[in-house]
Design brief:
By secondary structure, the chain is mostly helical. Strands 1-2 form a two-stranded antiparallel sheet. It has 48 helices and 4 strands. It is 60% helix and 1% strand. Strand 1 and strand 2 form a beta hairpin. The longest helix has 40 residues, at 289-328. It is elongated. Among the domains are: 91-123 and 205-253, no CATH class; 463-607, Alpha Horseshoe (Leucine-rich Repeat Variant), CATH 1.25.10.10; 851-949; 951-1063.
Length: 1109
């Protein structure tokens, strides 16, 4: 059977209305002569007309009027003394056979107006193939011919839409049938149809989009590029690169040139039909008289053949009647028909199929309509006519399917293969997954490859945009199919469906393909798995723009890595890992760590290359980054490589356990204690769970016991994998740590996390005996090295914060905390006494301060510095408080921080007192308790108003710098009542500064502070009393010291004065924003140009445009 496209035109309409019971179809009368011609005959009726039934004749007439007409049949019936009413279906059939098309159209219209639609006429006039114009080529012998020569078909009034391209869209909604109902066609329009066959309906939307696509394609192919561009602009709602955008679920038709040459024949409906030409006048036919005469002779020859065939069929029917009569006495109508068909020679039938006859006979027998031939004497013809009143129909596609009851598994599969393409488009979109079992079973068991391919195509196109649940259902079906049919058919039948949709416009469909590649990986031939499927996924990873698709691709790649066994693909797998790790989407990167890297690591473990190739390759790339990044490290790439190393820690530890001297002695048993919950870091995915990597928790527990015992008592002799970790991996990692920039908080944080997971995975004994000693050997924290500047360089590098936060914080018992406190105290002391930079200590405090668990510990370290005998150490402790205040809760600030700062603010050494000012400023910026703020305010006031500090240039610089930093974010009252008035005093005092270097230092810092504060909303009173006077004092200094700053200050003063003068606007607004006033074109131009020329430190200028948080 020919395959059916489920998204093309369909024959699945419901059966027509039944005839009224009181009508008698005289066409079935046994007295009307021989049966109709074979179906292969060019004069046979349309495919949807009633076929001739067994033992009944047809009253068909030839186009020339030969044969018995309907009126003659009626007359002969009346002559017999029985008045019979002629069925309207008989009349319609006769009109169509005799080519009275317009009369039939009129008849159809009148029936519609009377509310009695006739299926025969409806089907005929709704079929555009019956009215298409044929090209002017000479007719073939089996072509429809008229009395005077070849008949031209009338031009179809249907356009592309009449072919019903979008009848079944893949979202389950039918496009509305927009044909003009015949009942609404006026008489004048029917006359016009006869005289002007080119009349067309208005163009419809789908027709327009289809034609637009074809026209644009034609313009491009023929180098009309400018016209194509203009045409595309005028139709900007359509994507001319995708035929799917048109909205028709059919393959793209040929181009316009091919359509023109073929006269549209390639788009004809696939329904079985016989074209019936509209009758035209003889004079209207093309061609000369000689050609017409030849046609007439041909027709006469065919008529003679038909008459001869008719006589042969009459003889066959007579013989058949005798056979049937004798077999009916045995009580089996079906047997009689079958035997009758077997005895008749095949030439009697001229290729006429008897299948339908046998099937109808079978239906009659199973319908419980039986006759006892022993007691009744019914003629076969009468019995057949009587049974015809059982209202059954097997003439449509659906009727034929219903009439054929499957009698074997194969016939069931064939029936499902025929019916499913018609069922799927009519099922609601939300319920189409219910059809998946039927589609899959049929695709598995159907004998025809073409039908199986069509069914799998339906499966992958079942839902336009399948959601997660629907995709899971389809994937489950694909896996079940793969298990049933084996690798060969999966490769031949399922993979092509994936390949077709790899570039589908809907991401959900591409997502289905990506997921299917992973789900089918275990069931594919290994050669295909490591070549075609891997290439498909690699292409999607590199080209697909949807994050969710690339995420699914990465997961499927991980599954492929779990089944691949071609060692030559290692390099490709490594490149895929790096490519996916560099993906901009976080969800894709997470999928790499959760699925791909664990699977790839498992494969490299089998190959023996995890610690010999994979990890060394990543370390080499990190070292290359550090070498190239002397002037700027690419922190993103460093994060990519380091995160990959971190994901490889669990499989590396598994290699150590599985290659240990004790591995063969590990036997799980019930007495082994359970593994502590906190023994290992929480895995990112189940694939990084040590129990899953090893096999089970019991075996892992046994191995861990032997592992700890081996490390503590027996050593590492002969343990090659662990010796590689200790002697090669750790030293290389510590060397890399010493080369990263300590001021990069991101790098410090990444390496701290890495060492923390590394130490927690390898265990406490390993950390204490193998990791800590190597760090301590490098750091050399001892008293004799305190004053030696040489040898302390390592303390200024990132090794200090990474050791403190990545190694010493792995375990949180009392001895571990004491070790951490002691290390930080020693570092603080050593750096302070050595006058070394404090960046490494600051990085340690920032990293630890992010976790509230360590706040008490850090305060303990700082208190050690507060009470230290060295002023240098006390000064360092004061500066460290600034870093800690922001993260500590206010209770600790009140109880531990402020008392310590008050103590330091009265220190005998002035440098210690100055070092407390940034911490006090940070408290003013972050704390909300009024009592606490008043204490801090009083301490700062003492620094500014105490006579002993009047000449302390360093103190004034620190206060101005602190005011500029915290002023924009501090409480407004504190800013207006304290910060701005004291800045005014400092600016005024600086005018009388005799030392020019000190004067310029103060002026620069004041300029930065005023620039930062200019963004704040300040009351008019404060502007007039403090802000403007302070700016004028600063302007006076800048006139002499820095003309470039003087221009900006002049603009600020001018704009501020203008705002103050506009009191009406000021009163309405309640406050003035100095920053918002700098919008005049002249002022803005000068401001921006001069800001670019400044060469001083821009630490405060960075906050110029920063709003109050």
């Amino acid at each position: 059977m020919a395959s059916v496209n489920p998204f093309d035109v369909s024959d699945s309409e419901e059966e027509a209305e039944r005839r009224p019971n009181e009508t008698v179809d005289t066409e079935r009368s046994p007295s009307e002569g021989a049966p109709g011609p074979p179906q292969g005959n060019p004069f046979s009726p349309p495919a949807d007309a009633e076929p001739p039934t067994l033992l009944l004749s047809s009253n068909r007439t030839s186009p020339s009027g030969e044969g018995m007409s309907v009126s003659a049949a009626a007359t002969s019936t009346m002559a017999g003394g029985v008045e019979t009413r002629v069925s309207v279906d008989v009349i319609a059939a006769q009109l169509l056979r005799d080519q009275y098309i317009l009369t039939a159209l009129e008849f159809h219209t009148e029936l519609l107006e009377a509310g009695r639609e006739l299926p025969r006429l409806r089907d005929y006039f709704s079929n555009p193939g019956n009215f298409e114009r044929q090209s002017g080529t000479p007719p073939a012998k089996d072509q429809v011919l008229g009395p005077g020569g070849p008949l031209n078909r009338a031009g179809s009034i249907s356009t592309l839409d009449s072919l019903d391209f979008a009848r079944y869209s893949d979202d389950g909604n039918r496009e509305s049938d927009e044909r003009v109902a015949e009942s609404e066609v006026a008489s004048q329009e029917r006359k016009n149809f006869k005289s002007s066959p080119e009349i067309q309906e208005p163009i419809r939307q789908l027709e327009k989009r289809a034609l637009n696509f074809l026209v644009n394609e034609y313009l491009l192919k023929n180098e009309y590029k400018l016209s194509s561009i203009t045409f595309s602009d005028e139709n900007d709602d359509q994507d001319f690169e995708l035929w799917d955008d048109v909205g028709l679920n059919i393959p793209k038709p040929p181009d316009l040139l091919q359509l023109y040459r073929n006269g549209g024949s390639t788009l004809s409906s696939p329904r079985d039909k016989v074209d019936v030409s509209v009758g035209v006048a003889f004079g209207d036919l093309p061609g000369n008289c000689v050609q017409q005469s030849e046609v007439v002779q041909e027709l006469e020859y065919q008529l003679n053949l038909l008459n001869s065939e008719k006589q042969s069929l009459l003889l066959a029917l007579t013989l058949g009647n005798d056979i049937v009569s004798s077999l009916l006495q045995l009580g089996s109508v079906c047997t009689s028909v079958i035997l009758w068909s077997e005895q008749l020679p095949s030439p009697f039938f001229g290729g006429w199929e008897l299948t339908g006859v046998v099937e109808r006979c079978t239906i009659m027998m199973v319908s419980n309509v039986t006759f006892s031939c022993h007691s009744r004497k019914l003629s076969p013809a009468f019995q057949q006519a009587l049974l015809s009143f059982c209202r059954m129909c097997s003439e449509s596609r659906l009727g034929a399917e219903v009439s054929r009851i499957a009698d074997s598994e194969e016939s069931v599969m064939l029936m499902l293969g025929r019916c499913l393409p018609h069922i799927v488009p009519n099922v609601l979109l939300a319920k189409r997954e219910e059809l998946i079992p039927l589609i899959l079973c049929t695709a598995c068991l159907h004998p025809e490859p073409k039908e199986r391919d069509q069914l799998l195509h339906i499966l992958f196109n079942l839902i336009k945009r399948p959601d997660d649940e629907q995709r899971q259902m389809i994937l489950t079906g694909c896996v079940a199919f793969a298990r049933h049919v084996g690798p060969t058919r999966v490769e031949a039948e399922l993979l092509p469906q994936c390949w077709e949709q790899i570039n589908h416009k809907y991401p959900e469909r591409r997502l289905l393909v990506a997921e299917a590649c992973g789900a089918l990986a275990p069931y594919l031939p290994k050669e295909i798995r490591s070549s075609l499927v891997l290439s498909m996924l690699q292409q999607m990873l590199a080209e697909d723009k949807a994050d969710m698709v690339r995420e699914a691709v990465v997961k499927s790649l991980g599954i492929i890595m779990g089944y691949i066994d071609d060692s030559d693909k290692y390099a490709q797998g490594f490149e895929l890992m790096l490519l996916s790790l560099g993906d901009p989407s976080e969800r894709v990167v997470n999928a790499v760590h959760q699925v791909f890297i664990p699977a790839f690591a498992a494969w490299t473990t089998e190959l023996g290359t995890l610690h010999t190739a994979l990890i060394p390759s990543l370390l080499a790339r990190i070292e290359k980054l550090l070498t190239q990044g002397e002037h700027g490290l690419d922190e993103h790439k460093l994060h990519v490589f380091l995160s990959a190393l971190q994901s490889l820690i669990p499989p590396l530890f598994a290699v150590v356990l599985q290659n240990a001297p004790f591995t063969s002695r590990a036997k799980p048993h019930e007495d082994i204690p359970a593994i502590e919950v906190t023994r290992f870091p929480r895995p990112a995915s189940p694939l990084q769970d040590m129990a899953i990597i090893i096999g089970n928790r019991e075996l892992l527990s046994s191995l861990l016991l032997l592992y700890d015992h081996q490390l503590e008592h027996e050593g590492t002799t002969g343990w090659e994998s662990l010796l590689w970790v200790v002697n090669q991996l750790l030293p290389q990692l510590i060397d890399i740590v010493g080369r990263i920039n300590v001021t990069s908080s991101t790098c410090v944080h990444e390496f701290s996390r890495f060492f923390w997971r590394f130490c927690r995975t390898f265990g406490k004994i390993f950390t204490n005996t193998k990791v800590k000693p190597q760090f301590q050997e490098i750091l050399r924290l001892s008293e004799e090295n305190v004053d030696a500047s040489a040898g302390n360089g390592i303390l200024t590098k990132a090794t200090v914060p990474i050791y403190a936060t990545g190694v010493l914080t792995c375990y949180n018992q009392e001895e571990d905390r004491k070790l951490l406190v002691g290390f930080l105290e020693d570092v603080m002391t050593t750096l302070s006494l050595s006058h070394a930079p404090l960046d490494s200590l600051k990085a340690s405090f920032v990293e630890l301060g992010a976790n509230p668990v360590y706040h008490e510990l850090l305060l303990t370290v700082l208190w050690y510095g507060v009470v230290h005998t060295s002023a240098l150490v006390r000064c360092t402790a004061a500066r460290m408080f600034e870093l800690l205040v922001k993260g500590v809760n206010e209770t600790l600030v009140a109880q531990r921080v402020v008392p310590a700062l008050i103590t330091l603010s009265s220190d005998p050494e002035i440098s210690v007192r100055i070092a407390t000012i940034p911490a006090f400023g940070t408290i003013m910026e972050t704390v909300t308790q009024k009592e606490l703020l008043e204490r801090v305010k009083m301490q700062l006031a003492s620094f500014l108003e105490d006579p002993q500090y009047q000449d302390q240039h360093s103190l004034h610089m620190e206060i101005i710098r602190t005011f500029g930093r915290v002023g924009p974010n501090a409480e407004p009252r504190f800013r207006d009542d304290f910060v701005l008035p004291h800045l005014h005093k400092l600016a005024l005092a600086n005018n009388s500064q005799s030392v020019e270097s000190k004067r310029i230092d103060i002026a620069i810092h004041l300029f930065e502070a005023y620039s930062a504060l200019s963004c704040c909303f300040i009351s008019e009173e404060v502007i007039v009393n403090h802000f403007l006077p302070g700016l004028r004092c600063l302007h006076a200094d800048m006139e002499q010291l820095s003309p470039e700053h003087e221009v900006i200050l002049g603009s600020m003063i001018k704009e501020c004065e203008i705002k103050v003068e506009n009191r009406g606007i000021s009163d309405a607004q309640g406050s003035i924003s100095i920053a918002s006033s700098l919008v005049g074109e002249d002022a803005k131009t000068k401001f921006l140009s001069k800001m670019g020329q400044l060469t001083t430190s821009g630490a405060m200028l960075a906050n110029v445009f920063q709003r109050k948080k």
